[in-house]
Amino acid sequence: MNPKQIYHRSRRRHCGIALGGGGALGLAHVGVLKALEEYGIFPRVISGNSAGALIGGLYVSGIPVEGLIDLSQQLGDDLFDYLKMSFRGGLMNGKRIYRLLLDILGEKRIEDCDIPFLAATVDLDSGKTYYIHRGRIADAIRASISVPGVFPPFEANGLRLIDGGVRDAVPLRALNPYPLSLRIGVGILKASLNNNTPGYLDISPGDERDETAGNESPRILKVISRSMAISATEATFKGINISKPDLAIYVDLGDTMKIWEFKRHEIAIGMGYEQASEQLKAFFG
């Protein structure tokens, strides 16, 4: 172990963690938390966005990692039983998933938890980012998972709150008020971007193009899903680079599963654990 790794180990006791979003891929955060605990890292404060708020909120409520693994299986197997189509503010009616959160968390409030928690969200009307730090955990999670077009906004204090990832993919700024010696950002990569260097392309007219020829065009949902995954992955990289945490953990599941495949929870958790363990080993030795 080199001096730098020894120094990093001495900072573990005052650690804050920011968990990014990712839909079903965000279940990888459970594996990341397991790896962190094995390295003796028990966060003093957690911030989360969307799926990161879900896992972070459940964790600070007192559910241990093993309990989160069991709960992830339950969510993976039954989640779509709690979703119902709607055309008022989002494709899905948020009432059933909200009731599920209340069934799990009850009236548990953020300020009653041993670990401070902040859920990132954005006001739809003003575009301002808010970090929910008081109130019911279920309410904070429901606000933060309000993916535009999927779930209706969550209304609170006269605001219409949506997914914090719209402006803050990995909410590291939420940790700024806390006296921490180690800040960790966890980004879930929804698309494997193997080449980040822009290229130059010549599309000068050649032979007459037949728009009806060639391979079949991809279906619209695939185009939308892939485009959102690329955009979200880019936002994750940029958000972490701007905030400059002491350690950035990236979990790349982008081409392994889709953001709605909650039934593949074991893959997400396993890859989150494996990739986080490798990066922690490199950082701490």
Structure summarized in a few sentences:
The protein is of the alpha/beta class and 285 residues long. 37% of the residues lie in helices and 16% in strands.
Strand content: 15-25%
Largest sheet data: 8 strands, mixed
Distance between the termini: 6 Å
- The average pLDDT score comes to 85
Radius of gyration: 20 Å
- Tally of contiguous helical segments: 8
Order of helices and strands: HEHEHHEEHEEHEEEHEH
Q: How much helical structure, as a percent, in the residues?
A: 25-40%
| Poorly predicted spans | 84-91
Shape: globular
How many strand units? 10
What oligomeric state do the depicted chains represent? single chain
Would you tell me the structural class of the helices and strands?
A: alpha/beta
Main attributes of the structure:
alpha/beta; 285 residues; two-stranded antiparallel sheet
Description:
The strands form two sheets. Strands 1, 2, 5, 6, 7, 8, 9 and 10 form an eight-stranded mixed sheet that branches. A two-stranded antiparallel sheet has the order 3-4. Strand 9, helix 7 and strand 10 form a beta-alpha-beta unit. It is of the alpha/beta class and 285 residues long.
